[in-house]
Amino acid sequence: MLTPRQSMERRVKEMIGRLEAIAVEKVGLGLKEGGGEQPPSRSQSTSLEHFNKKAWVCVSTEFNLVGTTKLILTAIGCQPNRDDSLDMLQHKLKESLVNKKFLLVLDDIWDVESLNWESSERLRAPLMGVVQGSKIVVTSRDESVAKTMHSDRTHRLAELSPQHCWSLFEKIAFQDRDPIACRELEHIGKHIVDKCQGLP
Hints:
Layout (H helix, E strand, L loop, with lengths): L3 H25 L24 E8 L4 H11 L10 H12 L4 E8 L7 H8 L10 E6 L3 H5 L13 H12 L5 H18 L4
Parallel strand pairs: 1-2, 2-3
């Protein structure tokens, strides 16, 4: 039986494999902008190592373009200044990513109203210089986020089983704790897991 981490890693690899297949299809149909690079083969590794730059940004409650851009810059090792304007931040981001294969994960977008078409397009603007094979993965509980982000495909994840939820909770909440104290708190933990309804 797979651990929750192994299960999630397997799902991420499957999603990256599907995204690679989409990239190949787009090139084959003439839908990919630019040129000069061969499309990736289906046998190409789908590991994260083939990305030059990676950023995993938790967006959560409100999508803020300036804040999100700063988080992306920080994740790729470029420290933004506190008072940088959006134009300055996007310029730095574009320069940092030009001719790089980039993976961006915008995790857990909740607020669809703050992520409108205009902010989505502004977020994409500095990413236009990345090389073929770069990916943007967006996770959300709301399917309308996929439409706003102009997603090629959506992948609906099933909720975790109660056993996986408990295993994940136990690993995080009770790590490096006294086993006796953990047993005393187990009923509270199971109540919390029930309230999560299969969401990690």
